[in-house]
Write a structure and sequence with these properties.
The protein is mostly helical and 229 residues long. It has two domains: 108 residues, RNA polymerase sigma factor, region 2, helix turn helix motif (Rna Polymerase Sigma Factor, Chain: A); 99 residues, Orthogonal Bundle (Arc Repressor Mutant, subunit A), CATH 1.10.10. The chain is 68% helix and 0% strand. The protein is elongated, with a radius of gyration of 24 Å. The termini are far apart. 25% of the residues are buried. The N terminus is likely disordered.
Length: 229
């Protein structure tokens, strides 16, 4: 619950540290909580989605986690980074949903492809980029997202937190409440599985690349035959 207002920082919320924001949220300052959410939204959404593999459900989890964080922020003492504390709440909420699915004997679907919604808006877009190159970037991103989605849950979550969000081993271990050695092992295994999966897809693509059939084949044969006459 919100604390009694003490001497609080007057720093603009956009420039305040996480610790300052936490104190101001606990004191009942709405703008501070909005700033906190905007600051951590992307990382926390990715954490939830890594567990659930569904954009809509990840958004629901994030909202529930934020409500929990708001109610409990008065108990935050700064023993861990605020981002780690929030990530733990999100991970627990998402994992709780997965356990409920299992208890209901519902199958968690393995999506064959990534969501149409972009996880991240690419910064610093090259304005001279051609439509073809832009399409290639989108397709490559979808391929990678689909491959990450296909990872086993334990590996997928660690990979997203460590490789995409660049959280430290210590932060990831604390957020997921697992040993640091387990974080390292799961990240190594996740990278190995990604390499294997992407290599297999590339091999299949190579077999189909520059196909010589259909209209192209007919056209060349017809032209050669015409010249032989």
């Amino acid at each position: 619950m919100p604390r009694m207002k003490a001497t609080l920082s007057t720093t603009p919320v956009a420039e305040a540290t996480d610790a300052e924001l936490a104190n101001r949220v606990a004191a009942g300052e709405p703008a501070a909580f909005e700033a906190l959410m905007r600051r951590h939204n992307r990382a926390l959404f990715r954490t939830a989605r890594a567990i659930l593999r569904d954009d809509s459900e990840a958004e629901d989890v994030l909202q529930e986690a934020y409500l929990q964080a708001y109610r409990g922020i008065g108990a935050f003492r700064g023993d861990a980074k605020l981002s780690t504390w929030l990530a733990r709440i999100v991970a627990n909420e998402a994992l709780g949903r997965v356990r409920k699915r299992a208890r209901r004997a519902e199958i968690v679907p393995l999506q064959p492809g990534a969501s149409e919604t972009e996880i991240e808006q690419v910064a610093d877009q090259n304005m001279d980029e051609t439509p073809e190159r832009s399409a290639q970037r989108v397709e490559m991103r979808r391929l990678l997202e689909a491959q990450i989605d296909s990872l086993p849950e334990d590996y997928r979550v660690v990979f997203v937190m460590r490789a995409i969000e660049e959280m430290s081993v210590e932060e990831t271990a604390e957020a997921l409440e697992i040993p640091q050695a387990t974080v390292r092992t799961r990240l190594f295994r996740a990278r190995s599985l990604l390499r294997e999966g992407l290599a297999a897809k590339i091999d299949l693509a190579c077999e189909e690349a520059f196909t010589f059939a259909g209209e192209r084949c007919d056209r060349i044969v017809a032209r050669v035959m015409e010249r032989l006459k």
